[in-house]
């Protein structure tokens, strides 16, 4: 079953179809077509068991086994029910609500009982396994219990420090970016990752800092950048793409 990362974060209840064996409504569970007779088994005479004589190293011995004709029921159906083919029970699909716990990850199998109770490996016994696949999210990449994201800031913000809003599943968080942050730095907001499936607490939100550079600086921006370059004693190209002689 595919679920979204946000559903995996919060936990979710999903409706699924579960097959369940029910008493056949056509024959009422007898296995015989209505209006036909159920007869006493001619092989065992209704006892459900037969006695056989077998040869053993100790001589002939009597062995009691389940009747091969009626399989122990003692009765035989002359005309099997056409709905259940004489089984007395039919497999019916019925829809159950499955609670998918918060923190679930791709590859985890949930055991689902016919009542819809779901348990992680070794949970309540049931008759169906649900394989979970968590779909990728546009905003966050999951790494175990952590979530990874990135933020774009402009170079003055990286150089002088700033505050940015970071989206989490619990709303926006303010992240302090210290002065002198380098492109590619990784910052962290503790406890804003995925809830831990086993155990308490949550993973972290890791933020990759990307520093963007203006592709077409305005005239004023260019003028200021040239001043910064001069102050830093580095050579830069002028507007026409040539190097100016920088006074040293
Ligand atoms: Zn039936
Ligand atoms: Zn029998």
Automatic annotation (TrEMBL):
<keyword id="KW-0143">Chaperone</keyword>
<dbReference type="Pfam" id="PF01556">
    <property type="entry name" value="DnaJ_C"/>
</dbReference>
<keyword id="KW-0862">Zinc</keyword>
<dbReference type="InterPro" id="IPR008971">
    <property type="entry name" value="HSP40/DnaJ_pept-bd"/>
</dbReference>
<dbReference type="InterPro" id="IPR002939">
    <property type="entry name" value="DnaJ_C"/>
</dbReference>
<dbReference type="GO" id="GO:0008270">
    <property type="term" value="F:zinc ion binding"/>
</dbReference>
<dbReference type="InterPro" id="IPR001305">
    <property type="entry name" value="HSP_DnaJ_Cys-rich_dom"/>
</dbReference>
<keyword id="KW-0479">Metal-binding</keyword>
<feature type="domain" description="CR-type">
    <location>
        <begin position="11"/>
        <end position="93"/>
    </location>
</feature>
<protein>
    <submittedName>
        <fullName>Chaperone protein DnaJ</fullName>
    </submittedName>
</protein>
<dbReference type="Pfam" id="PF00684">
    <property type="entry name" value="DnaJ_CXXCXGXG"/>
</dbReference>
<dbReference type="InterPro" id="IPR036410">
    <property type="entry name" value="HSP_DnaJ_Cys-rich_dom_sf"/>
</dbReference>
<dbReference type="GO" id="GO:0042026">
    <property type="term" value="P:protein refolding"/>
</dbReference>
<keyword id="KW-0863">Zinc-finger</keyword>
<dbReference type="GO" id="GO:0051082">
    <property type="term" value="F:unfolded protein binding"/>
</dbReference>
<keyword id="KW-0677">Repeat</keyword>
<dbReference type="GO" id="GO:0005737">
    <property type="term" value="C:cytoplasm"/>
</dbReference>
<dbReference type="GO" id="GO:0031072">
    <property type="term" value="F:heat shock protein binding"/>
</dbReference>
């Amino acid at each position: 079953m595919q679920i979204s990362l946000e559903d995996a974060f919060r936990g979710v209840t999903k409706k699924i179809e579960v097959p369940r064996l029910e008493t056949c409504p056509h024959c009422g569970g007898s296995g015989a077509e209505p209006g036909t007779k159920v007869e006493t088994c001619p092989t065992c005479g209704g006892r459900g068991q037969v006695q056989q004589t077998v040869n053993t190293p100790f001589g002939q011995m009597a062995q009691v086994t389940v009747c091969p004709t009626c399989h122990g029921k003692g009765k035989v159906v002359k005309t099997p029910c056409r709905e259940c083919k004489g089984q007395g029970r039919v497999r019916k699909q019925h829809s159950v609500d499955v609670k998918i716990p918060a923190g679930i990850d791709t590859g985890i199998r949930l055991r689902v009982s016919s009542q819809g109770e779901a348990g992680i490996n070794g949970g309540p016994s049931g008759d169906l396994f649900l394989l979970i696949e968590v779909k990728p999210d546009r905003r966050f990449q999951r790494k175990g219990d952590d979530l990874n994201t990135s933020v774009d800031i402009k170079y003055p913000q990286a150089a002088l420090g700033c505050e940015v809003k970071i989206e989490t599943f619990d709303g926006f968080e303010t992240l302090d970016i210290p002065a002198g942050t380098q492109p590619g730095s990784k910052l962290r907001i503790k406890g804003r990752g995925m809830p831990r499936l086993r155990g308490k607490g949550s993973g972290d939100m890791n933020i990759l800092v990307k520093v963007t550079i203006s592709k077409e600086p305005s005239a004023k921006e260019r003028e200021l950048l040239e001043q910064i370059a001069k102050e830093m004693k580095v050579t830069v190209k002028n507007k026409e793409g040539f190097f100016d002689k920088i006074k040293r």
